[in-house]
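Severity: low
Component: inverse-folding endpoint
Summary: output formatting inconsistent between runs
Steps to reproduce: submit the following structure tokens with default settings.
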């Protein structure tokens, strides 16, 4: 019997292999990441304070996007078989440049599971009920389109439910199950209806990415790096054009906090379209990309308040020291960040996402912003709405860090 975490590790590795075939620059990114991590670990005796090199090397997060509550519920059932549960609620409609989705992250929640393999998937659902983005007429047509498609074979979801209940699967069953789960996220070669794609694109490139085709796919898969500044420079030297910024906290001399991310620009990928006259044509679209991230210590709500204040400054690096001390000992003493049993040598790694960075990541890969009409949000989307949609609780990240902080480091 293979336990849940082994299935999760195989799922992450399977998606990574598939994504490397689909997006060749991802392989370059993995190679450079491995080099940077290796060199960083050789130079820094404390390199493993935020996770073993074994964990960090295998560590990925994925991003997927689905269309409806029913599709999201299937994703929740599928991921539960891998020990990945919904944590946090992100409403990217609130962002400076709004994206018509609401999201959660599926990931392991307890210390042992995280240490074994922390694979997480940022999962977004199209905010179809939000009339600021979708007219009544368009909403009905998108709904009809989504009702006709099937992202996951019902047999796969049924099997996921029984694996989740059993806590694992025997080796043969595991292999087919993981293979089919990975395949469900492959980029489809089915022709896309061009006029439908264009109509959705006028609302949002994300809407077109989600609801123009019969399947879903990995939008990106992100490795973890121990020195993101070094990686950034090195990718540029490899001739890969990175976006012009590293999202999240600035580089500082003190303890790394939360999450820093950067990416390279969406690749122009060929897709097949069915044109108005019925002919097929190959055209390129730019919705997928490569992202990389560095993770730091999780901040308490008090620390998060400081973070938000620092980030509101025109140059956060300049004012960082006004908000954060320069050692883990002070961070722990002032209760700004989470440490196992308050021990500053045992930081708790941030396992989640940052809404502002997420919106920035979405946005840096779109050719055009979404247009939201003025008006009130009557969609009713909230964290508890989402919990109802997936039929399970959405974990509160702070409550999880709080629990971890009462435990000894594993
Ligand atoms: C997800 C964007 C969020 C991150 O790393 O913040 C994300 C998406 O583009 O679908 O992946
Ligand atoms: Ni991402």
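Observed output (run 2 of 3):
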């Amino acid at each position: 019997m293979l336990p849940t975490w082994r299935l999760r590790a195989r799922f992450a590795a399977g998606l990574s292999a598939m994504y490397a075939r689909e997006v060749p620059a991802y392989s370059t990114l993995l190679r450079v990441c491995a080099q940077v991590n290796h060199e960083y670990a050789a130079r820094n005796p404390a390199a493993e304070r935020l996770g073993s090199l074994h964990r960090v090397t295998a560590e990925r997060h994925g991003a997927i996007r689905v269309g409806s509550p029913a599709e999201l519920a299937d994703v929740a059932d599928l991921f539960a078989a891998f020990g990945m549960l919904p944590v946090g609620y992100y409403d990217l409609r609130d962002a400076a440049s709004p994206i018509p989705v609401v999201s959660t992250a599926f990931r392991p929640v307890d210390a042992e599971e995280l240490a074994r393999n922390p694979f997480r998937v940022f999962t977004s659902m199209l905010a179809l009920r939000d009339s600021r983005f979708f007219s009544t007429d368009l909403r009905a047509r998108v709904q009809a389109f989504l009702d006709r498609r099937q992202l996951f074979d019902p047999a796969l979801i049924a099997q996921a439910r029984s694996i989740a209940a059993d806590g694992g699967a025997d080796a043969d069953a595991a292999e087919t199950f993981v293979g089919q789960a990975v395949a469900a996220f492959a980029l489809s070669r089915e022709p896309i209806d061009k006029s439908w794609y264009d109509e959705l694109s006028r609302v949002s490139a994300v809407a077109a990415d989600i609801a123009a085709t019969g399947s879903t796919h990995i939008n990106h898969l992100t490795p973890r790096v121990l020195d993101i500044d070094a990686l950034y420079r090195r990718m540029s030297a490899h001739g890969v054009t990175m976006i012009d910024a590293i999202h999240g906290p600035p580089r500082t001399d003190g303890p790394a906090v939360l999450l820093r991310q950067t990416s390279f620009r969406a690749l122009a990928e060929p897709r097949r379209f069915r044109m108005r006259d019925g002919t097929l044509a190959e055209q390129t679209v730019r919705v997928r990309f490569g992202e990389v991230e560095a993770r730091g210590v999780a901040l308490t709500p008090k620390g998060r308040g400081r973070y938000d204040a620092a980030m509101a400054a025109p140059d956060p690096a300049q004012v960082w020291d006004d908000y954060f001390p320069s050692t883990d000992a002070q961070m722990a003493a002032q209760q700004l960040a989470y440490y196992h049993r308050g021990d500053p040598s045992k930081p708790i790694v941030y396992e989640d996402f940052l809404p502002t960075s997420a919106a920035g990541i979405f946005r840096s890969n779109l050719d055009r912003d979404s247009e939201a009409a003025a008006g009130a949000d009557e969609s009713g989307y909230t964290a508890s709405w989402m919990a109802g949609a997936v039929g399970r609780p959405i974990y509160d990240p702070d409550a999880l860090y709080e629990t971890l902080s009462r435990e000894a480091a594993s």
